[in-house]
Sequence to fold (173 residues):
Amino acid sequence: MHFLVSDICQPQTWLESRVYLLLRHHGIQRPEQIHLTDLCASYGIELRSIRGRSRAHRHPAEAGRFVIAVDERLDEPARRVKIAHELGHLLLHEGVQPLGSDLMIDWQEAQANHFAEHLLMPYYMFTALIGHCTRFEAPFYLARTFRVPLDFAQKRFDRFLNRLYAKGYPAAW
Fold:
C-alpha cells in the first residue's frame, strides 16, 4: 500500500504543487504541524474572531498587512477550514472579490476551497496514516487526525480514492 499511496501523492496540479512547496518551506511534514496561526503570522496576516461571516481584508491600521476574521461561533475544525480558505484567497488572489464577475468569483471560491483541501490534508501525509484503519474508517480517522470536519475529510478521501481508481489501483484494503 505504501508504494501505491506514494505514487499517487505526487502533485498533479499547479495549485497542489504550490501548496506542497509552501508546506515544505515551513517544515510541515505531519498533520500535527499544520498550525494555521503560525502560517498566517509568517505572512503578516492577523487572525481575529468576529461574530458574523468569515472573511479576509486589508488591515485597518497597518499598511501591507491583512486580517482574516473568523466567526467565533464555529467549532475548531470548521474554523480551521475557514482560515485555510481565506488564506488561500490572500495568497492567490488580488483585488476586491465583489467587483469581479460571477464567473470570476466562482473560480476564486473553488480555487480557495482546493487550496484549503491541499493545505489541511495534503496527500503526501496520507501514506503514514491510512494503513492504520479500514477504508470505511478512514474518513473518521483522517478528520480526527487533521482536525477538520468529517464532511471535509470525506470529500478529500473520496478524491484520494478517485486518484487510485484513475491510476488503475484497487482501492480495497
About this structure: The chain has a mean pLDDT of 88. Helices lie at 2-8, 14-25, 36-42, 76-92, 102-120, 138-146, 150-166. The first helix runs from residue 2 to 8.
